[in-house]
Amino acid sequence: LFERYGTHARDFAGFMADGVDAPLKHSSKYSRRELIYILMTEEVTRLDDLLLRRTLMAWLGEFTRDLLEEVAEISAAVLGWESARMTAEVERSRGILVQRHGLNLGQ
Known about the structure:
Blueprint: H1 2-5, H2 9-17, E1 23-24, E2 27-31, H3 32-41, H4 47-54, H5 65-79, H6 83-99
Antiparallel strand pairs: 1-2
């Protein structure tokens, strides 16, 4: 956590320890509560903002469509997105990741 968040690592660790946490199903490098903390404290409004600026997820070379959808589901739950908004965020983010960053996420 310190490598990713520096002096804020203690805040992340405290939040993560305060509830049931688990690694993401499609990436053991991040945990559910870690993402929840970012979503609650960093004024995230778009999925691509979370993937490209608030975390390094999309930059680490292991990003998949399944991970995109998993992160979108967590984001939707925290940010109160309806199903249509979540779907739109997934498609927008997929487009950005494929077209601008050259990721291969499949259909």
